[in-house]
Amino acid sequence: MKIDSEYVKLVPAAPKFDSEGNRVDADDTLALDNNVIMLDTALALNYVIKQLEKTQKELDELKK
Hints:
19% strand; alpha+beta
């Protein structure tokens, strides 16, 4: 499964130092960006709710 790059953010590694005080570069980490995921979920849910309301209205009209 591939995750859209829009949902991924780069989290810089925390600085690390060796016993002599020299900075040691560590690998950055990829993480999911929950803000983007939540926004897309809210928009999708809003769309589905509107479709459901429209379908319910059509059903109510057919019942008359």
